[in-house]
Here is the input.
Amino acid sequence: MSFVVKTLNQFEFDQPFTLNGGGGLPSFNLTYETYGQLNKNKTNAVLVCHALSASHHVAGYYHDDPKNLGWWDSFVGPNKTIDTNKFYVIGLNNLGGCHGSTGPSSTNPQTNKKYANSFPMVTVKDWVKSQELFANYLGIEKFAAIVGGSLGGMQALQWAIDYPDRIENAVIIAATPKLSAQNIAFNDIARQAIINDPEFYNGDYYSHNTVPRHGLRVARMMGHITYLSDFKLTEKFGRTRRDQEFKYSYDIEFEIESYLRYQGEKFANYFDANTYLLMTKALDYFDPASEYNNSLQTALKKATAKFLVLTFNSDWRFNPIRSWEMVSAMLENDLDVSYCAINSESGHDSFLLPDQNYMDILKAYFNNISI
Amino acid sequence: MSFVVKTLNQFEFDQPFTLNGGGGLPSFNLTYETYGQLNKNKTNAVLVCHALSASHHVAGYYHDDPKNLGWWDSFVGPNKTIDTNKFYVIGLNNLGGCHGSTGPSSTNPQTNKKYANSFPMVTVKDWVKSQELFANYLGIEKFAAIVGGSLGGMQALQWAIDYPDRIENAVIIAATPKLSAQNIAFNDIARQAIINDPEFYNGDYYSHNTVPRHGLRVARMMGHITYLSDFKLTEKFGRTRRDQEFKYSYDIEFEIESYLRYQGEKFANYFDANTYLLMTKALDYFDPASEYNNSLQTALKKATAKFLVLTFNSDWRFNPIRSWEMVSAMLENDLDVSYCAINSESGHDSFLLPDQNYMDILKAYFNNISI
Here is the structure.
């Protein structure tokens, strides 16, 4: 049912780009993929924003790597939830990423060295600004929809606030208008684990030909627990032992330990530590209301998009109350908003998983979008 | 209102001690403190079992360290919740601990070197067995009560199962009959952070005159989040910033980061990493039903103690359902059990905090104990 991604594309922006936190880049490029055809009037474009660790590779697979399916492949394709017979779907790797877009592991053209720790802090606002430049480049005046889960949903919300004329529908899934103290706490511990890894070398591990593997593993393992519900972990692993008899050692005793260590190891093998740090900071800083007297209602005053806000009742990272804060601010502005808290046992990760109710709601919403 | 602890005591057991996991010790000692007077018939003894990181220092303060109040000082003392005018209260540091009892940082008398990674794995069952030897030494045939929160409560439960004739009342607070996959996951990540710290030296950091400080910090910070509720963290810290303006760097931006790093640093300064590893493993292995065909009801068949089971509705580490599993098994055995899920916003840490309802319930229960 998946389709082949023929080529990877690069959007190259060759002018200086100033970031929200004060830093700047002499230029940047964004890696992107597209699925479907842009129609003549360019009214059928859907931007899919990724979360912490995903990429531009939203759907399909590459000719030379048929097993590497896009992270939202169940949702994007011909006749799928977001039907590429109707929509022109775009996935891009965010600025600061490690999947082809300019990031800490890229070479700074001004120094011919990797950016490493000189890469400026990026915020959700910066991403949206860079995506707007990208939309200009493609000639897309208004996206039919901008959609994302978690950190991706935050980008959709920021779009609706910063560029109200350029977004018809904002689909915000499993997100929050700002992180809680607990959310920030988990992020900071992950960062501490990475930064204090002796292989981090103050972010310049590239020139030491190493990676802060142990820190990345701990960060990923901890993140992973927060993406799943207690119930799902119990159902999936419970207290299932690796061997029938305990070894009474620090080796793996329970399957959950084996699973998490595997996830941590896998992640440390492909994800750039500096990018991970940047992404968690973008999460922490995200708080669009803070520019508007801490009122999300005021922040949304100029918004004109229609909204679909989805949340999952087992998501303890960004629980349904956090989504309701957004819906409430939208309703106060008489905006067109649909909301659903979907029954799901998979926690925060639910936004990635093909649950029938979830897909039906999304499909119905996208079917109703006029292009 | 606190009283002075006059002396620290040592129980010295000079015979070999075989542990549940197969290892052994040539001898051991347990550090303990007592409050109140043991009555003539030795029927008024209350054993307070500690959780992961606490010690024998339950109440009062030392002559030379008046600010160092015991960890449950609000609860134990003359006319307090557990009234030392009536009860002889004993706090002891568990085997494997780092507060005076024999543990990994103790010297092995057979080698004259620190045990370090040769210290055997200890389980809750071992602790209870060592405490029984200690009771023999004091001539206490039956404890009026054995009480504890979290890992301390698990010891009270194990006592009621393993030594039914020697415990009149088991007071089990904020505990669980066995850890969930999520619980084990958090423990294993903490262990991975410590074990992979280059300063760990396979547990023999003593001979390198160092400690795996970064690993301990990450472990403690992560543990700390799980002890508190999301609500409490929001109430206490929210998104309060360190400075008015963001620095857009990896320095502390939010107060929650500052608090957690401080907690981590403090812990790394006094707690032994090997003990931390042991305690988390004791938690993971705890599952008294596993010896009885995985039936907690069967495990409790010979129990005769009266039970008080307390839990807190904001405790997401060991939530009320986990306590109810124990109550349910007790009821199936027609045991005398009182249960209360206490309203509290402080999460798992609630068992340490002087909430009025909580203290009233505990006090009423202890007042009703005949000695």
Summary: Residues 107 and 230 of chain A are 42 Å apart (CA to CA).
